[in-house]
Structures are given as C-alpha cells and as structure tokens.
Amino acid sequence: xxxxxxxxxxxxxxxxxxxxxxxxxxxxxxxxxxxxxxxxxxxxxxxxxxxxxxxxxxxxxxxxxxxxxxxxxxxxxxxxxxxxxxxxxxxxxxxxxxxxxxxxxxxxxxxxxxxxxxxxxxxxxxxxxxxxxxxxxxxxxxxxxxxxxxxxxxxxxxxxxxxxxxxxxxxxxxxxxxxxxxxxxxxxxxxxxxxxxxxxxxxxxxxxxxxxxxxxxxxxxxxxxxxxxxxxxxxxxxxxxxxxxxxxxxxxxxxxxxxxxxxxxxxxxxxxxxxxxxxxxxxxxxxxxxxxxxxxxxxxxxxxxxxxx
Amino acid sequence: xxxxxxxxxxxxxxxxxxxxxxxxxxxxxxxxxxxxxxxxxxxxxxxxxxxxxxxxxxxxxxxxxxxxxxxxxxxxxxxxxxxxxxxxxxxxxxxxxxxxxxxxxxxxxxxxxxxxxxxxxxxxxxxxxxxxxxxxxxxxxxxxxxxxxxxxxxxxxxxxxxxxxxxxxxxxxxxxxxxxxxxxxxxxxxxxxxxxxxxxxxxxxxxxxxxxxxxxxxxxxxxxxxxxxxxxxxxxxxxxxxxxxxxxxxxxxxxxxxxxxxxxxxxxxxxxxxxxxxxxxxxxxxxxxxxxxxxxxxxxxxxxxxxxxxxxxxxxxxxxxxxxxxxxxxxxxxxxxxxxxxxxxxxxxxxxxxxxxxxxxx
Lengths: 309, 362
Description:
CATH architecture of chain B: Orthogonal Bundle
Number of strands of chain A: 0
Shape of chain A: globular
CATH class of chain A: Mainly Alpha
Structural class of chain A: mainly alpha
Distance between the termini of chain B: 19 Å
Oligomer: heterodimer
Helix content of chain B: 55-70%
Shape of chain B: globular
Low-confidence stretches of chain A: none
Number of domains of chain B: 1
Strand content of chain A: under 5%
C-alpha cells in the first residue's frame, strides 16, 4: 500500500505540513492558559494568510510577509480582546464572530492577489550537513519558519514552566479573582496573551499562503484553525504535546496527499476528509477516560472577569 | 474614568434596543468600509437596505427573494437558538444542512422518474433525518465521551463538504448530464419539487416550515417544560441540576432539533431554489444563521425579524454587486461586523456605565 512513498520524504514534508498548526496551537495554548477561550483562530489565521501574502508581494520580502501576517492576526485578535476584556462579551460568540468576519474581510483584501506567486522562502543553507543521508533531509533541509516553530514550542514550555511571567499567566487562568486580589492586572495580562495568540495564528496563516500552497485563494486555511483548537485539547494544555499532536496531524495530511498522488483507489473526496475525522477521533480518545484532558483545563477558561471592587 | 456597574437584572429596554443600535452602528462602520473601497457610502447603504424593497425597477424581482433567503436562515437559527440558550454550541449547522440535502435529494432521485404523491413528504422526512443524524454525532460524543461539541460539529462541516463533492461527482450525478458534476434538477421533477406556492411571493414549503418553527419554538419556550429546562440550564446550570434537568438528555434534544431543522432547510433549498445537488449549492446559510440567532436575541420572534433583515443584506448585497461593483466579500464582512457590534452593545443590557472618580485605596 505504501509502495512509492519515501519515508524520509514523508517525515520531512510532515514537518512542513504541521508548521501552521503548531504556531496557531501554541498561540491558542498560551491564550487558554491565561483563561481565555478564543474560538477565532481560523479567522485570525486567514487574516494572517492574506496580510502576509500582500506584505510579501508588495515588498518582495518573505520575511516582511511573515511580519505582516503576524500583524494581521494580532490586529484581528485586538477586536476580540476589546470585546471580551472591556465590553465583557461572551467569548464563544465573539470567537465565532471573529472567524466569520475574518473570512469575509480576508477575501475582500485578497481580491487583487489571486493567481500571483509570492516571493519564495528558501531553505536555510546548512552546507554539507544537508547532504547527510536521511538525517540531512529531515533535520537540515527546511526553511527558517520550521525551526522557528519548534523554538516557539520550547520557549512557550520554558516560559510557562519556569518563569515568573509564566506563573502569573497561569495564576490568571486558574483563578482570576485570586490573581486580582494579589494585585495582578488580569485584564492587561489577558490582553497581551490574546495579542500573542493572534500574532502566532497570523504567522501560521502566512506560512500557508507563502510556503505551503503558495498562493492566495479564498478560504485558504480550510479549517486549520479549528484543528489547532482541537490540538490544544489533545495536548492537555502542554506545549510539547501540542507539537506531537501537530506532527501526528501533519503526518496524516501528508500521507493522505501521497495516497492521492500514488493513485489509491479511494476517491479523493473521502481521503480529504481523513484529517478531520482523525482529529475528531483523537479528541474523543483524549476527552474520554474520566475526563483526563478536561482535568488539565485552566479553571477560569472561558469566564469573563469583572472587578466589582 | 468610566466604570461598569452590574445591573441587578438585565434591562428590558436595552434588550429590545441593542439589535437596533447594533444595526445602526454597522451601517455607519459599513459605510466607512464602502467609502474606503471607493464607493459612495450613502448610495451603497441605500442599495442594500432600501432598493431591494422599494425601487420600482428591482423590487418586483427582489421582494420574493426576501422570503426565499429568509426561510432557511430562520429555520436554522430557530434550532440553533434553543441550544445556545442552554449553553450547547452547535456551530456545524452548515454540515447538517448539507447532509439533509444529500439524504433528502437522494431519496427523491431514487424514485426518479416515478410520480407518486408520497415522494416529496418522504424526502422531507429524509432531509430532517439526515441533519438529525449528522448532529447526533457531536451530541453522542459529548454525552458519552465528554468531547467538545463545538469542535466536533465544526470539523464535521468539512467532512460534509467533501461528502457533497463526492456525491455530486459520483453517486448522485445526473447520468444524462454529459459528465458535468451535479445531480438531476429536482425542481423539474414534479413529484420531488418544492415549487413557489403563491406566484410572486417567494413562498415555498421551506418558508412555511420556518414560520411553523417560529410559532412552535415560541410555544415551547413559553409553555412547555422542555423550554423551561432549556432556559434554566442556560441561566443557572447548578439550579437546573437540582431541579432534575438531565443535562445529557438536553444536549441530545437541542442538538437533535437544531440538526433536524438545518437538514430540513437543506432539503427545501435543494429541491426548490437551488434545484440540484452540486458541489457548491450551499452558500453558508448555516454560518449566517449563527448571526441571525444572536441578532434575534435567541428569541423566536426576534429571529423572524433578524432573518428577514439578514436576507435583505444578501439580496441588497447582490444588487450592490451588480449596480455598484461592490465585491461579494464586502457583504460577508459587513454581516460579521454586525455580530461584533451586537456583542459589544450587549454590555448595556447587563451593565450600567457610570462616571466614577478614581478613589485612593483606604
């Protein structure tokens, strides 16, 4: 069945395929650790995809494209932050609104950019290291964003686990009343977390339109944001497990694409559903078993904070 | 310095006024967006909200479209609102809509070209069943395995879209269609068609079903124990538990009703206005219905008006596209903006804004 599929290439390409989801999932993980449930990941990602694409095409620089993508995602998340933190709107509904609005606005902004090729993001030159058999392709054969995504996971893990900033962030997510009583600025910390989440989602979106596809079409993220949300639950709010989850998902996506290319006798439409179905399956496994995943959820997740005193 | 003070109970005045205020603010913000796109904002707003109903040239075409577009939106939003009230978030109505259409159309096409009176009623049942079954997946996963219904119902939309593509290219493809994707045209198959009931009104069976759903939901929420349980579970989950509300049964009920109504909407659309199963016959009613549900304040009568208003933005948007060259996506962004403003001004319902002098801590 796997005849004609090279495992080295498979691993190398699954690392690339999972980058957008890792970035968005780590962003959302930090947001949720601060006690905020932002369901607008899909909207922020697609805004990042379109803003990144426009910035890259207009400046001719892929790096500036990624900066633009992060800025686009963060700008959209600012709306969410103001609505939920200052105007105390329902987080679930606001997140959905963010996605609906992002999908519309992105296709409006991207109108003049359909069918254009963006400037290419090259592979980091490791020189002779890239020629090592097997390992060279897997470890030393990627563009800089792939390495950045892994660095971000490590950074998020370290900050959440071993720094004062991470401790405060988690305190705000576990009990905003207690954190407020200790004198921490709950609203300000959550605002910053939401902006970070938006920036990361935007970066992930920009990777889709600049590297993965690479061009602009409406609805280009096709559910990646929702899968990132599912990965956060899968990871039980732990950064390294989010990486595992994203690689698992990336592996399925790549395998599915390879099977399509290898001419498997299953119609393309059914194969394309596989990543979504397997995400659902993984969610089910993670949430059952006496609610193991749910036990790790930040206690104040999704609750709005209003200081009455 | 402004300070928020929680009201002892939600203000009735603002409950009614916030949707109106939100629509007004959206018109202003939308006008700015249209101006940035290089269009005359006043003309754009007039084309969207006024011309479809009162312009002599277009109204005769546009007015019937109002009911055609509002029907499915209202039908889906009524179902969603029941769940939203109880804190059960079915956001995959788009998928349930597609599945209802596929199953319903499949039943109709299976009888082709026979002419029996029972074919259309059977299709209606199958449509409701298709949407119901698709909604049962997240419902049962939630009750049995505690899986988040928001994510599952949403992910299933993508599966349903893939299935729709598979169906219109494979099993349900018109054998006489010369290899083009898409099924036979149901609206040209009398036993399976969902025709306009009164010429020039746009009224079809889906619109009738939407009106029935509004009345039924109103009665349910005002007079029936299930409606009471739904409201109780949303406002005071702990109290609901003590009052003997079974949260799992409530999830199954709410998801089931919303799925069945979304499936019905899909069936009525595919056998009437859309006419056939094709890769992109769905136009996102399942997602827009979320906006309709909130704009109607999750209240059946409110949803009726919200659905008509949202239908107007669809028709007006098409008209603005045709007359002013306004991009279709601008309308989608406009609709999303409406939901933002609605959520923002909702603050006024639950809080008072007070001018406060900052006091030193004692």
